[in-house]
């Protein structure tokens, strides 16, 4: 992987990790790495989630964590990449289920607009028949959930941008950080040397 791509990946994964660590209902960081695995250039692994019932605030934080990698790219580079494809699929799926399955939309109401019943081919919940107006309202509610989550992580990253730069420099050197190591760096601590400066602004995104 080109060094410029590694650095974009590092900012992307640190963005996920920052949101996971600071949003009140998110699962904390277990590991993050810029070592490629399969088609992934890097990844942030959250702690295992053993909750049986998931609240609306927890779901909103999950969506925000999923979007935080793309938000980090935008904040740092003023541009975005194609690296957030799976993140957007995950976040959109959660938002749509909140609206169509779990009755978590004040506008749509406490109704089921999707079902798993009879879905013998798999592929997740299937939409039930609905009017064009209802389908439009569902799309608007999903977009609103996504937009609110994205605004939250943009603000969070802007507030902690200096620390993000520092953690990225450490991650680039070490390639992998445990959850405890990330927590130490986020709190302003060091691992095995003096604190790293934020350093110069990153180079433009690779083309």
From TrEMBL:
Q: Does the keyword Secreted apply?
A: no
Which InterPro entries did the record assign?
A: Peptidase_M41, Peptidase_M41-like
Under Enzyme Commission nomenclature, its number is 3.4.24.-
Please give the cofactor(s) recorded in the UniProt entry for this protein: Zn(2+)
Which residue ranges does the record annotate as region Disordered? Answer: 188-207
* Record key words, sorted: Cell cycle, Cell division, Hydrolase, Metal-binding, Metalloprotease, Protease, Zinc
TM spans (from-to):
none
The molecular function GO annotations come to:
ATP binding; ATP-dependent peptidase activity; metal ion binding; metalloendopeptidase activity
Give the EC class as a word. hydrolase
Q: Could you tell me which Pfam families the record lists for this protein?
A: Peptidase_M41
A GO cellular component annotated for this chain's UniProt record is: plasma membrane
Q: Which SUPFAM superfamilies match?
A: FtsH protease domain-like
> Per the record, where are the segments of Low complexity compositional bias?
188-200
Q: Which residues form the Peptidase M41 domain?
A: 2-184
GO biological processes: cell division; protein catabolic process; proteolysis
| Signal sequence interval, chain numbering | none
Q: Which PANTHER family match?
A: ATP-DEPENDENT ZINC METALLOPROTEASE YME1L1, METALLOPROTEASE M41 FTSH
Could you identify this protein by its name?
Cell division protease FtsH
